[in-house]
Automatic annotation (TrEMBL):
This is RlpA-like protein double-psi beta-barrel domain-containing protein. The keyword Signal applies. It comes from the Eukaryota. Keywords: Signal. Residues 49-91 form the RlpA-like protein double-psi beta-barrel domain. The keyword Nucleotide-binding does not apply.
Amino acid sequence: FTDYGTGLGACGVTNNDQDYICAVSKLLFDTFPAPGGNPNLNEICGRKIHATYKGKTVTVTVTDRCEACAVHDLDFAPAAFDQIGSRDEGRLHGMTVSIFYSSTLSK
């Protein structure tokens, strides 16, 4: 689990570094349906993920797709990453994750 620079994501929403958002791997993102092939409408967009690391939990919203991530990797916006770890650590290993299957994203 890493942090990344935000901006316009694959879900069609522009975010900033203070948002509690994440990108999922393209391998996971692409398994969800996208009506008409439009990634902005992908069914994983807007889903909430609860991530826990060393007793700290953060809830993020899926708004992007990570090209370089392994299937279970997540990239967090800096503010979300800072809630559970230090960016000095770089990658966080051993995080537990729950994905909730209702989308809350509004565009």
